[in-house]
Design a protein that fits this description.
alpha+beta; Rossmann fold; Tumour Suppressor Smad4; ten-stranded mixed β-sheet; six-stranded antiparallel β-sheet
Length: 299
């Protein structure tokens, strides 16, 4: 039985250029499994999303992304914005690969490619996973406001080949000019918060920034989001918290608030930074977030 064409979307700059270096091998592994592969390379921020949207609108049903969380973010938005449906396969070649971890995808990119190729060749059924939505944008792994987003912006300005340590260095750099504690109002499934905070992270998956186990209980197939709030905290407080964030033992700390939610609204007194899947968004004051159970078909 003939199988549908695999549309492979690759961001050559993902993982500080590792994805581009691996392109030929990824393509070969997929073709060795007998798959018909059409390659699409993104050239700028937003390009992959546009290409995925156009492909799915035109009838593509199997989308494979070789890249990191930014590439996954664009592909998810391309798929979910389309009037048609398509499955998503992921080959992790980024820096953090948080979504891949959440989906138990091998972080060995060659092994992940072989496993995915075998599943695609066998026409195995897709696995439904949840997606989130913040205002008019979708996210695969998580959203964040406040210091969380400032760190993300800082990480994007660091061009060193140090893997996940990029985010640790970004935290240290982001603390230099102080830690803002904007006043926000959060309403979520009967829970409310009104006051200053350092950050609010809304997790669909357990990991953030590659190395931080920010929401150990998060499961992207349970129809829920995990809200993690950090109360106002000093530089020293953040330094003390970092080892616990890596281990996932921070939830017992007095400065941390955790709630399991399905939707929430956040209002800030002034525009504040935010990110989706590590992609910095424009400054905003009002946020509406919700979970979309089973919105993605993981190949």
């Amino acid at each position: 039985m003939a199988t549908a064409t695999i549309h492979l979307f690759l961001n050559p700059t993902a993982g500080r250029g590792r994805a581009g270096a691996r392109q030929a091998r990824i393509l070969a592994l997929l073709q060795e499994a007998g798959l018909d592969v059409e390659l699409h390379a993104s050239r700028a921020v937003g390009d992959m999303e546009s290409q995925v949207l156009s492909s799915v609108d035109a009838g593509a049903t199997r989308i494979v992304v070789a890249g990191g969380d930014g590439s996954v973010h664009e592909a998810v938005n391309g798929i979910l914005r389309s009037k048609n449906s398509a499955g998503l396969g992921v080959i992790p070649t980024g820096t953090g690969n948080d979504f891949a971890k959440a989906c138990s995808i091998s972080l060995n990119w060659e092994h992940a490619t072989r496993l995915l190729a075998d599943r695609l060749a066998a026409n195995q059924s897709a696995r439904p996973v949840d997606a989130g939505k913040m205002n008019n944008r979708f996210f695969a792994n998580g959203a964040g406001i406040g210091f969380d987003a400032k760190v993300t912006r800082t990480a994007q300005s660091i061009h060193l080949p140090i893997g996940d340590l990029i985010y640790l260095l970004a935290i240290l750099k982001a603390m230099i000019d102080g830690i803002a504690t904007p006043r926000v109002r959060i309403t979520a499934d009967g829970y409310s918060w009104d006051g200053p905070l350092t950050l609010a992270n809304i997790s669909n998956g357990p990991w953030a920034g590659g190395m931080f186990y920010i929401a150990p209980m998060a499961d992207n197939s349970d129809g829920q989001l995990e809200l993690i709030i950090a109360k106002p905290i000093t530089r020293l407080g953040i330094l003390n918290l970092l080892p616990k964030l890596v281990k996932g033992t921070h939830l017992q700390e007095a400065v941390i608030v955790h709630r399991t939610v399905t939707k929430l609204t956040i209002q800030a007194d002034a525009p504040i930074p935010s990110h989706l899947d590590g992609e910095v968004q424009e400054l905003q004051t009002d946020f509406e977030l919700t979970i979309l159970p089973g919105a993605l078909d993981l190949l």
